[in-house]
Design brief:
Number of strands: 2
CATH architecture of the largest domain: Orthogonal Bundle
Order of helices and strands: HHHHHHHHHHHHHEEHH
Number of domains: 2
Largest sheet: 2 strands, antiparallel
Structural class: mainly alpha
C-alpha cells in the first residue's frame, strides 16, 4: 500500500509533464501550418502586371495574340503557386487541356510555406520566361528590382527555411508552367509573329493588305492549343454574311453601315474609337486594357492575394482562348476589311479613323476578347447582371481621359462598337465576336472547378 502510494506521488508529476509536452507539440504543429493565401495582400502581383503592360508596349513582336498568351501563363503560374493555400481550391493541373502531362510540383504537406513569397518568385520568373529572347536589360533590371523589393517586404519576420522553401516552390511552378507553354503552338512566336512565308487565297472576297504591312499577322494562331477545348469546339460563330457586290445584298448593307457611320460619327464616337483602339506598341494591346480594368477593380475592392489570383487566372484563360478562337475564324473565312470593300465598290475616297490591322475582318478580335473579359468581370464582382459602377483610369497612361461605366456588358458593347466607329469592322464582325467571347468567358467560369467562395 505504501509502495503504490509512493509510486503515485512520482507518476502524477510525470503524467502532467507528458500532457504539457503533448500540448506543446500540438501548438507547435498548429503554428507550423501554412497561413492561407487570403491572409496576404496582392500588391506584389499588381506591380508585376503593371510592368508586364509596359513590357508588352515596349517589346518587339508582342501583337495582341502574343500579348494575351503571355498574360495567360503569367496568371497561371501565379495561381498555381498559391492555390494550395486557398480553402477548397483545386489545382488546374488536371483541368486544363494538356496540363496534366506536365510534371507540376506540389508543396510538402508537413512543411510551412509563405504563399506570397511563392507567388513573388513564380510570377517574376514566368514574366522572364515569356519575354525570354526579347527581354531588354532595362526591363530585366525592373523585373529583378520588383522581385527583390517585395521579397524583403514579404520575408519580414519569416523564418529563413520558410522563405527559402517558398522561393524554390515558386520557381519550380514557373518552370513547370513554362514547359507546359512550349508546346501550345505559340512558343517564341514573338520572334516571327507573321509566320513567314505564308500565302493567302486571292478570291475577291479575301483579305488584302490595307497598309504598309503586307503580310497577315499570325495566320496559324487558330491552331494553337486552347486551355479549354470547348472554347474552340463549341463557340464557333458560323460564317459571315455571304459576300456580294449587289447593292441590294446583305453584305453590301453591312458595308454601308460602316460607310454611313464614318460620315456621321459624333465627336464622342470618334473619341470612343480611339479610346479602345489599343494599338500594339502604343499601348499594351486590347488584352492589356482588359487586364488593367481587372487590376483596377481588384484594387478598388481591396481583395486578398487569393481573390486577385483567382481573378487574374480566369481572365488569362479567357483572353488566351478568345484570341485562338477568333484567329481560327479569321483565317477560316479570310474576309476582306470594310475599307477594301468600300473603296472598291462604294467610294474610292473612303478613309478610316483608325489604321486597319493586318489580318482578316471576321470576327473582331477586340469584340471577342472584351466579350470574354466582361463575363469574367461579371462573375467576379456582380450577382450575374453585370452591374458595377466604375471609372476606367487605366488609359490615362496612354493620354486618354477616363471613362465611366455602370455595367460590364455595356462596357463590352462600347468596345465592340468602337471598331465600327473607327471603320475597322463590319457590324457582324463585332456582334459575332461578342457572341464568341461571351461563350468563352462563360466556359471559363463554369467548366472549371473553382473555389466556391473566395475573398
Amino acid at each position: 500500500m505504501f509502495q503504490n502510494s509512493h509510486n503515485t506521488k512520482f507518476l502524477l508529476p510525470l503524467l502532467l509533464i507528458a500532457l504539457l509536452f503533448i500540448a506543446s507539440c500540438s501548438k507547435d504543429n498548429e503554428f507550423k501550418e501554412s497561413p492561407e493565401t487570403r491572409e496576404y495582400t496582392p500588391q506584389h502581383v499588381y506591380s508585376y502586371f503593371n510592368l508586364t503592360c509596359k513590357m508588352l508596349k515596349g517589346t518587339q513582336g508582342f501583337f495582341p495574340p502574343q500579348a494575351a498568351r503571355a498574360y495567360s501563363y503569367i496568371s497561371l503560374a501565379n495561381y498555381e503557386s498559391v492555390v494550395h493555400g486557398i480553402k477548397d481550391a483545386k489545382s488546374l493541373h488536371t483541368q486544363l487541356n494538356g496540363f496534366s502531362a506536365t510534371n507540376l510540383p506540389k508543396p510538402q504537406t508537413d512543411q510551412v510555406y509563405n504563399w506570397a513569397i511563392a507567388s513573388n518568385s513564380a510570377t517574376s520568373r514566368t514574366i522572364q520566361n515569356m519575354f525570354e529572347k526579347r527581354l531588354s536589360p532595362v526591363f530585366k533590371t525592373s523585373l529583378d528590382s520588383i522581385e527583390s523589393t517585395h521579397l524583403i517586404l514579404l520575408s519580414a519576420g519569416e523564418e529563413k527555411d520558410v522563405v527559402d522553401r517558398s522561393i524554390q516552390f515558386g520557381y519550380q511552378i514557373a518552370d513547370a508552367v513554362f514547359e507546359y507553354s512550349k508546346n501550345d503552338g505559340g512558343h517564341e512566336s514573338y520572334l516571327d509573329p507573321f509566320y513567314l512565308p505564308y500565302g493567302l487565297p486571292s478570291d475577291e472576297y479575301c483579305w488584302v493588305p490595307t497598309g504598309a504591312t503586307t503580310s497577315p499577322l499570325s495566320p496559324q494562331w487558330g491552331k494553337n492549343r486552347p486551355f479549354i477545348i470547348e472554347n474552340i469546339t463549341k463557340t464557333h460563330p458560323g460564317p459571315p454574311v455571304t459576300f456580294s457586290k449587289d447593292p441590294n445584298s446583305a453584305f453590301y448593307k453591312e458595308a454601308m453601315v460602316v460607310y454611313n457611320q464614318l460620315k456621321n460619327n459624333s465627336p464622342e464616337q470618334i473619341e470612343i474609337a480611339k479610346y479602345w483602339a489599343d494599338d500594339p506598341f502604343k499601348t499594351c494591346t486590347p488584352a492589356g486594357h482588359t487586364f488593367n480594368i481587372l487590376l483596377q477593380v481588384l484594387q478598388n475592392e481591396k481583395v486578398s492575394l487569393a481573390k486577385a489570383s483567382l481573378g487574374l487566372v480566369k481572365m488569362g484563360l479567357a483572353e488566351n482562348d478568345a484570341f485562338i478562337a477568333c484567329w481560327k475564324t479569321k483565317y477560316e473565312y479570310v474576309l476582306l476589311r470594310p475599307v477594301t470593300y468600300i473603296q472598291r465598290y462604294i467610294d474610292p475616297t473612303f478613309t478610316t479613323i483608325l489604321g486597319t490591322p493586318p489580318f482578316p475582318a471576321y470576327t473582331s478580335g477586340h469584340s471577342c476578347e472584351i466579350g470574354a473579359g466582361s463575363r469574367i468581370l461579371t462573375d467576379l464582382f456582380t450577382n450575374g447582371n453585370g452591374d458595377y459602377q466604375f471609372t476606367d483610369y487605366s488609359q490615362l497612361q496612354h493620354g486618354f481621359v477616363a471613362r465611366s461605366f455602370s455595367n460590364f456588358e455595356t462596357m463590352a458593347e462600347e468596345c465592340a462598337n468602337s471598331r465600327l466607329y473607327g471603320g475597322i469592322h463590319y457590324p457582324m464582325d463585332n456582334s459575332k465576336g461578342l457572341q464568341t467571347g461571351r461563350a468563352i468567358g462563360d466556359n471559363v467560369n463554369n467548366l472549371i472547378q473553382w473555389p466556391f467562395f473566395i475573398n
